[in-house]
């Protein structure tokens, strides 16, 4: 874009005047950036900033086209600067068109400099600023200037990422609501941060912050969970990633928390269906699970019994199980015994399928 430029008399004053440079004020107490701008100009480099109150006429248009502003042929490399705090960096500004004999950078904590060359490099050995603005400009031989701003993102990966429960410690109860929190310490800029909660290797959700603070901050993200018996023994953790765009690092900075082992109290639960078919000669097996592991007593016709290991037709009927674990529960199961050549609906099959299902869930 074009902005107001310098008249020739002001340009000569800046090039040959002997005035003392004035540092650019900032809102930080960090040490000054050890900036270098090259190639060096043959003119004096101690040029003061342009007075903010000065009014300068716009660029003069081309002959026959009064008021039309010529194209601003400035190019930045990179077009967007992404730099880690305390790392070095370089940025190159070049001019490709004619009619712009002077090129310059206006950057924080460095003297204003111009050069008659077609490119000018801004070089910093150590980035020590969080809020930084920089502008490359070209002076027109018509008496004005054009400029282009370099967007700068200064980032810092978090010092630490941790996960915990909000207002809770110890085991959880099945069916109750709990809140997980992920604390990300001293990260910048927080608006580029994405936090993901995990249950094992399964993502529970991604969160971002609306905070526009550019200096390092500590931020807490939360997600609600409703644990079930399948969550007993799983591990919760969270991941903090800085998404810095195509100009950022090839591998975005990622920090992960420790793993939080979950203990869920549940049950008792009857694994088998309430109506079973078993073949003659098979064992009748009923699986009752819970945490803590429940005690189990089987009854048939009001009498405590042991489940048969070699079933026959006489073992058919209704069985009642009394369980005592986290709570007390009773279950009634109807058993049908069929000929050994028939197809059964055995609890053994249900038990094996349940074990396979639980193992699959835990691998996720």
Characterization of this structure:
This protein has 2 helices and 27 strands. The protein is mainly beta. A 5-stranded antiparallel beta sheet has the order 1-10-9-6-7, with no helix packed on it. Strands 15, 16, 18, 19 and 20 form a 5-stranded antiparallel beta sheet that branches. Strands 22-27-26-24-25 form a 5-stranded mixed beta sheet, with no helix packed on it. The longest helix is centred in the C-terminal third of the chain and has 17 residues. It is rod-shaped and about 110 Å long. The chain starts with a strand and ends with a helix.
SS content category:
mainly beta
By DSSP, the count of extended strands is 27
Instruction: Count up the helices.
Output: 2
Helix content: under 10%
Average pLDDT rating: 79
User: What radius of gyration results from the CA coordinates?
Assistant: 37 Å
Distance between the termini: 53 Å
Main sheet properties:
5 strands, antiparallel
Which residues form runs of ≥5 with pLDDT under 50?
1-32, 40-69
Shape from CA axes?
rod-shaped
- As a percent range, the share of strand residues is 35-45%
């Amino acid at each position: 874009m074009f902005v107001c430029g310098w008249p020739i008399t002001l340009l000569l004053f800046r090039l040959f005047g002997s005035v003392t440079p004035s540092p650019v004020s900032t809102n930080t107490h960090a040490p000054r950036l050890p900036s270098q701008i090259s190639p060096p100009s043959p003119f004096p480099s101690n040029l003061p900033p342009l007075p903010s109150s000065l009014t300068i006429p716009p660029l003069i248009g081309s002959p026959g086209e009064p008021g039309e502003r010529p194209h601003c042929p400035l190019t930045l490399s990179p077009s967007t600067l992404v730099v880690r705090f305390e790392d070095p960096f370089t940025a190159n500004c070049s001019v490709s068109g004619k009619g712009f004999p002077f090129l310059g950078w206006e950057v924080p904590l460095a003297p204003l400099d111009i050069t008659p060359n077609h490119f000018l490099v801004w070089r910093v050995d150590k980035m020590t600023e969080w809020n930084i603005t920089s502008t490359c400009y070209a002076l027109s031989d018509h008496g004005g200037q054009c400029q282009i701003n370099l967007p700068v993102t200064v980032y810092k990966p978090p010092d630490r990422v941790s996960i915990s429960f909000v207002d809770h410690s110890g085991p959880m109860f099945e069916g109750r609501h709990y809140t997980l929190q992920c604390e990300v310490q001293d990260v910048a800029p927080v608006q580029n941060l994405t936090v993901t909660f995990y249950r094992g290797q399964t993502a529970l959700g991604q969160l971002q912050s609306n905070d526009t603070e550019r200096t390092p901050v500590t931020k807490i993200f939360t997600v609600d969970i409703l644990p079930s018996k399948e969550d007993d023994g799983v591990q919760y953790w969270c991941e903090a990633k800085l998404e810095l765009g195509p100009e950022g690092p090839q591998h975005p900075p990622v920090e992960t928390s420790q793993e939080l082992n979950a203990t869920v109290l549940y049950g008792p639960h009857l694994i088998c269906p309430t109506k079973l078919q078993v073949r003659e000669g098979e064992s009748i097996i009923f699986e009752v699970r819970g945490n803590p592991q429940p005690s189990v007593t089987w009854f048939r016709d009001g009498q405590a019994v042991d489940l048969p290991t070699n079933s026959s037709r006489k073992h058919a009927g209704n069985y009642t199980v009394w369980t005592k674990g986290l709570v007390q529960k009773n279950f009634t199961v109807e058993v049908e015994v069929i000929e050994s050549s028939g197809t059964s609906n055995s609890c053994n099959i249900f038990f094996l399928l349940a074990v396979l299902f639980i193992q699959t869930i835990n691998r996720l």
